[in-house]
């Protein structure tokens, strides 16, 4: 039997993809087809999760087994797990996590049996509509940072009050050697320690 799955976002209807997979094929093959269809980076980690009736994740189907000998091995491996081993009347919906750092995932729902064409090479993308979500999220605060931006464009982006307080911005190892390695020369007598400076702030 061939299975048809609808892949969508959990909180939006802006994207929908339909992929058919053979029951004897593995979750590794299903994963590879998702990555290929969405043009995602295949080197990144991803996992399928089965769900209970309340929508909680129960069992992970991972790219590789990351458990240690001391841990109970509840994780299945995609390459060793067939679609028909998991998709049953009591398990028709999965989650596919493709960005663990931001917990970004797709809903993967069984949408019925797929009647393949003689020319189909399974798994096959049946349909893909809408804007494909970005694979990774980036913090908005870093979005405008450019490493090759001229230094003058970053004026005011950092607080140099610490250097103003402790001064001597021209200090270097050669200067220190000229003064015989005397750290006392560079000590600001107003503060016994960095904690005193922090307390003053």
Please characterize this protein's 3D structure:
- This protein is of the alpha+beta class.
- The chain has 2 domains: 2-139, Roll (Structural Genomics Hypothetical 15.5 Kd Protein In mrcA-pckA Intergenic Region, Chain A); 159-200, no CATH class.
- It is 17% helix and 26% strand.
- It has helices spanning 27-38, 83-86, 161-166, 173-178, 194-200, and strands at residues 2-8, 15-22, 47-51, 57-62, 76-77, 93-99, 104-113, 124-130.
- Strands 5-4-3-6-7-1-2-8 form an 8-stranded mixed beta sheet.
- The longest helix is centred in the N-terminal third of the chain and has 12 residues, at 27-38.
- Mean pLDDT is 81; it is low at 140-149.
- This is Plasmid pRiA4b Orf3-like domain-containing protein.
- Residues 150-163 have a biased composition (Acidic residues).
- Residues 18-134 form the Plasmid pRiA4b Orf3-like domain.
List keywords for this structure.
2 domains, Structural Genomics Hypothetical 15.5 Kd Protein In mrcA-pckA Intergenic Region, Chain A, 5 helices, 201 residues, eight-stranded mixed β-sheet, alpha+beta, 26% strand, globular, 17% helix, 8 strands
Percent range of helical residues: 10-25%
> What's the tally of helices?
5
Within CATH, the superfamily of the largest domain carries the name MM3350-like
Q: Give the distance, in angstroms, between the N- and C-terminal Cα atoms.
A: 70 Å
Q: What summary fits the major beta sheet?
A: 8 strands, mixed
For the CA atoms, what is the radius of gyration?
Answer: 28 Å
**Uncertain spans:** 140-149
Strand order of the largest sheet: 5-4-3-6-7-1-2-8
Q: Compute the average pLDDT.
A: 81
CATH class of the largest domain: Alpha Beta
Tell me the count of domains.
Answer: 2
Overall spatial form:
globular
SSE order, one letter for each helix or strand:
EEHEEEHEEEHHH
Proportion of residues in β-strands: 25-35%
Number of distinct beta strands: 8
In CATH terms, what is the fold-level topology of the largest domain?
Answer: Structural Genomics Hypothetical 15.5 Kd Protein In mrcA-pckA Intergenic Region, Chain A
**CATH hierarchy: architecture of the largest domain:** Roll
- The helix-and-strand class reads alpha+beta
């Amino acid at each position: 039997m061939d299975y048809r799955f609808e892949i969508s976002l959990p909180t939006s209807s802006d994207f929908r993809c339909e992929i058919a997979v053979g029951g004897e094929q593995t979750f590794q093959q299903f994963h590879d087809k998702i990555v290929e269809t969405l043009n995602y980076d295949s080197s990144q980690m991803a996992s399928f999760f089965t769900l209970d009736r309340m929508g909680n994740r129960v069992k992970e189907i991972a790219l590789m087994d990351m458990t240690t000998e001391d841990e109970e091995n509840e994780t299945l491996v995609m390459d060793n797990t067939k679609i028909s081993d998991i998709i049953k009347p009591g398990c028709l919906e999965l989650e596919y996590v493709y960005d663990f750092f931001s917990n970004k995932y797709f809903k993967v729902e069984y949408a019925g049996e797929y009647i393949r064409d003689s020319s189909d090479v399974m798994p096959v993308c049946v349909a893909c509509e809408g804007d494909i979500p970005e694979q990774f999220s980036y913090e908005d605060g870093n979005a405008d940072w450019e490493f090759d931006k001229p230094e003058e464009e970053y004026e005011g982006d950092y607080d140099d009050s610490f250097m103003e307080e402790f001064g001597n911005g021209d200090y270097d190892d050669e200067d220190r050697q000229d003064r015989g390695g005397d750290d006392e020369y560079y000590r600001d007598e107003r503060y016994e320690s960095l904690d005193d400076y922090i307390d003053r702030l």
